[in-house]
Amino acid sequence: MSDRYLKLGAILSGVGTTQNGWRHPDLPGDASIDIDWFCENARKAEAAKFDLVFIVDSPYITADSAPHFLNRLEPLTLLSAVATATSHIGLVATVTTSYTEPYNVARQFGSLDLISRGRAGWNVVTTGLEGAAGNYGREEHIDHSVRYRRAAEHVAVVQGLWDSYEDDAFPRDKQSGVFLDKGKLHPLNHRGEFFSVRGPLNLSRSRQGQPVIFQAGTSEEGRDLAARIANGIYSNEETFEEAQDYYRDIKRRAVAYGRDPNEILIFPGLVPVVADTDAQARAREEEINGKLDLKKALVQLGRPFNYHDFSQYPLDAPFPDLGDLGLNGYRGAADRIKRVAREEKLSLRETAWRFAARRSPFVGSPLTIANEMERWFREGAVDGFNFRISSPTDFDEFLNRVLPILRERGVIRRDYEHDTLRGHLGLPIPPNRYTVLRVSRERAVRTESPREPFSVGASASGDIE
Q: Which residues contact 252 (CB under 8 A, 6 or more apart)?
């Protein structure tokens, strides 16, 4: 593990995942499909020594989806282009395990990892939107618990395929004519509950061994999967106390699975509101929230419930009893909305505003925000943050006014020390499983081999004295 610095990611989401972000005057209206916009912002994050950029994705929309969701580039294609425009920053793409095959995913991420020379990461999701089923020839969405079992097996198969070649499998000796050492190519021959994959993958490992696994676990099953498989976790807590509880829970689960908790890094989202003074920043936050549209807030509220239509209910009546709605979608988010509405006795109108106008804990002067970020880091609530680029101005304010304070304190790095994503995150390179097995067997053979008898009068060199 390298020196512990606060890790930083940048969520590149074009025209935005809220209903009004696209209207910012400095944001191109077609940013979500403009590769130049993505490359420019990735280079900006790289110049600030961010660890990674992150691309969100989902395979289902409605006409009321947020602008970025309506018209956006496919993540792996996008990041392959960004890889050629950058040299150090990590590249993390979201791909679902619910509607993909492990062999394709292994090949796609393995290719991005080689194209970027070891900077790829996979954000593993199980797809919460039930409507996605219809895009993949299914009548019904896969059940929540089944999706998580499938995800665990999917990831295990992909990681097995990434090890198809040992690191020294290709001598490429032109003199002898040996391109491949065939003894270092391994089929997977996997047969499980959901997948049957023979392998091997026709792609070698990268400089970082394998792409880094990320996950966003909020439900009970999601947290458990994250603790089992992930090296990076995207969380969504609103307060320091919630973030600290989540942090402790994930680390505890990781230890229970026999993992080193230091090799699981937790990144909540970061949406700072920066101004010259704390009062000005709070006033700016109120101004931003005051421009929200109630109809759009209701649409946004419905997304975790598979875009449930909340306009059918009385706005000032108590938040409706939705029964099991949301349990097979984004369960963690849906459960949270139901719980908060119940505990705080909110009406539907109040619930819509509550979740559309989420209060950021990072509002204030540059010094105030830097102090709060450092507190979350030092006191065991986070390992890093994912900055949600909601406007060009906000990103620049954060880079130019907040980061210098953290850098001066030694909280974040001054320069890159590595050129792979694992290196940035302080994660070890996973050894090839077949190499480990072969070396173990060779050592066992050497240990068990009978020793040559030592003759009296013979020196260690074998010469007679």
A: none
pLDDT of residue 460: 32
Q: Span 7-276+362-425: which CATH code?
A: 3.20.20.30
Mean pLDDT across the stretch 430-443? Answer: 94
* HEC readout, the chain: CCCCCCEEEEECCCCCCCCCHHHCCCCCCCHHHCHHHHHHHHHHHHHCCCCEEEECCCCCCCCCCCHHHHCCCCHHHHHHHHHHHCCCCEEEEEEECCCCCHHHHHHHHHHHHHHCCCCEEEEEECCCCHHHHHHHCCCCCCCHHHHHHHHHHHHHHHHHHHCCECCCCCCCECCCCECCCHHHECCCCEECCCCEECCCCCCCCECCECCEEEECCCCHHHHHHHHHHCCEEEECCCCHHHHHHHHHHHHHHHHHCCCCHHHCEEEEEECCEECCCHHHHHHHHHHHHHCCCHHHHHHHHHHHHCCCCHHHCCCCCECCCCCCCCCCCCHHHHHHHHHHHHHCCCEHHHHHHHHHCCCCCCEECHHHHHHHHHHHHHCCCCCEEEEECCCHHHHHHHHHHHHHHHHHCCCCCCCCCCCCHHHHHCCCCCCCHHHHHHHHHHHHHHHHCCCCCCCCCECCCCCEC
Question: Which of 145, 44, 114 has the alpha carbon at shortest distance from 86?
Answer: 44
**Residues 6 or more apart whose Cβ sits within 8 Å of residue 21:** 15, 27, 67, 68, 390, 391
Q: Which of 17-31, 78-92, 283-297, 322-336 has the highest mean pLDDT?
A: 78-92
Whether 153 and 195 have beta carbons less than 8 Å apart is answered as yes
Crossing angle for the helix pair 348-356 and 294-302, to the nearest 10 degrees: 80
This prediction's pTM: 0.88
CA separation for the pair 402, 398 (Å, rounded):
5
Q: Where are the domains of the chain?
A: 7-276+362-425, 293-356
